[in-house]
Amino acid sequence: xxxxxxxxxxxxxxxxxxxxxxxxxxxxxxxxxxxxxxxxxxxxxxxxxxxxxxxxxxxxxxxxxxxxxxxxxxxxxxxxxxxxxxxxxxxxxxxxxxxxxxxxxxxxxxxxxxxxxxxxxxxxxxxxxxxxxxxxxxxxxxxxxxxxxxxxxxxxxxxxxxxxxxxxxxxxxxxxxxxxxxxxxxxxxxxxxxxxxxxxxxx
Length: 203
Description:
Number of strands: 6
CATH topology of the domain at 115-203: Ubiquitin-like (UB roll)
Strand order of the largest sheet: 5-4-3-6
């Protein structure tokens, strides 16, 4: 006779811990570790926070702005100045070059506008066979909400593209996925986008 055991408690790091954690928190729509609660209904947020505190032992870090400032202070970046380009233009890294991204971005930050048009726009590009080690293309995109940069990514593609056009299509597909995800997040926060979402591709 086969016997199946069900664990009532899980130790963090075990194979089944993540599934049990997800099952426990499904009704609260949360992820583990640090959690940011956002919304436009403050009484509901306070009620939601109280329910979480009843279920789990939480440490409320307060208003997000204060939390973000503490992170910047701990990292020593409170005095960082805005810049149009956080990286030196056209830098190519390889496993033989002992230069890290931290060397390029040290002391630089992003500037967010307090008043800006809520228009979601994306810009994407692909650098064909740019990786010096694998000859794979690099996908890059940046997404703006009005004049503020809210999402960006630069990553090697999973496969080797046979042409620059194929690399560009992969880049556009990744950017569209990110735009769709951001639209859903804004919709959940009751942010109405009155203009069509645009995607610009350099091809």
